[in-house]
Task: structure prediction
Amino acid sequence: MEYAHKPAQSAQTSPTPRPPRPPRLDWAAIAPAIAQLRRQGCSNRETARRLGLNIKTLEAHLRRHRLRNALPMDRPDQVRRTCLNCDTAFVADGRFLRLCPDCRAMFS
Result:
């Protein structure tokens, strides 16, 4: 009885390893713009939109370099938030505040 599947001859030779793919983005050139937008208080979504990046790509880069929570907090009861109205990052004085001070002033 013959086997229906015969191994190919090329499978016995070891394939040459492929060189690593070059990075698609030059993060060294983009990093100063990211840092500047984050200092201005822009959220990850707003930063990605302004730089023309995918939000998941930017978040993965920030996660990889441990830059996710760069907003400073003064007290332990403060919480980092993203505004539900304008998507800017801000530090809330309590865990129930979901609007940045500008949006709160606008709706009050």
